[in-house]
Design goal:
Blueprint: E1 5-9, H1 16-28, E2 34-38, H2 44-51, E3 56-60, H3 77-82, E4 87-90, H4 93-98, H5 103-115, E5 119-124, H6 128-132, H7 136-151, E6 160-163, H8 177-194, H9 196-201, E7 203-207, H10 212-219, E8 226-229, H11 236-244
Parallel strand pairs: 1-2, 1-8, 2-3, 3-4, 4-5, 5-6, 6-7, 7-8
Bound molecules: 2-phosphoglycolic acid (PGA).
């Protein structure tokens, strides 16, 4: 039985004052799912202080593929573990698109996260043009296979996958439950080709304009094991509402 996970991706939002309120409210909420928040780097210490000892875990939104050294501006996986992080997002579409992260870079980041004991949340998903060209399956398979090739299927025993159709991120457009389920099933089947046990255990989150109003139907799909939540994670009642839809 896979425990549902609802993870917030705050992106580049927040301030010490706003975060304090949000973290307190999330911590105080009751949820039917495991909860996590992925916050901007400067606020990791605040997340750790506010959430330590609670049922909510925290993490970051990106890491360096490098372990240490002359990489100005980068943050290593072991630095995240210093702040008690459980999770780190890798390969979010905004990193792939706006920062030119290739499948190879994402695979290297995934491996770096795991070698430091973090649980990577591997984000994959197709653009609108790719969906309209009927190459969704090819795109998500290619993104997944880059990581399978580098880290091996066993790595997915300690990882999470997030399927985020790029056209649904921050747009208010959500994949229908059937559209999402189709891709989630395809992702699980691809992992199962290498190892059926790992595939049965790996959590596959849906991300892209998930809200309290559409979460229940999405979460009811056989292969949807939770959500990666952007905009709605900035409002405690919405974030908890999604978690309670599980
Ligand atoms: P959204 O973002 O919920 O605002 O669409 C999801 C994400 O980018 O992870």
């Amino acid at each position: 039985m896979r425990t549902k996970l609802v993870a917030g991706n705050w992106k580049m939002n927040g301030s010490l004052a706003l975060n304090a309120e949000l973290l307190k409210a999330v911590r105080a909420g009751k949820a039917a799912a495991e909860l996590a928040v992925c916050v901007p780097f400067p606020y990791l210490a605040q997340a750790q202080a506010e959430l330590h000892g609670s049922h909510v875990t925290w993490g970051a939104q990106d890491i360096s593929a490098q372990a240490q050294g002359a990489f100005t501006g980068e943050v290593s996986a072991s630095m995240l573990t210093d702040f008690g992080c459980t999770y780190v997002l890798v390969g979010h579409s905004e990193r792939r698109t706006l920062h030119g992260e290739t499948d190879a870079v994402v695979a290297a980041k995934f491996a770096a996260a795991q070698s430091a004991g973090l649980i990577p949340v591997l984000c994959i998903g197709e653009t609108l043009a790719e969906r309209e060209s009927n190459i969704t399956a090819e795109v998500v398979t290619r993104q997944l296979e880059a990581v399978l090739a580098k880290s091996g299927v066993a790595a997915f025993a300690n990882a999470v996958i997030a399927y985020e159709p790029v056209w649904a991120i921050g747009t208010g457009l959500t994949a229908t439950p059937a559209q999402a389920q189709d891709v989630h099933a395809l992702i699980r089947a691809r992992v199962a080709r290498d190892d059926a046990t790992v595939a049965a255990g790996v959590r596959i989150l849906y991300g892209g304009s998930m809200k309290p109003g559409n979460a229940r139907e999405l979460m009811q799909q056989a292969d949807i094991d939770g959500g990666l939540i952007g905009g709605a994670a900035l409002v405690a009642t919405d974030f908890l509402g999604i978690a309670n839809a599980c």
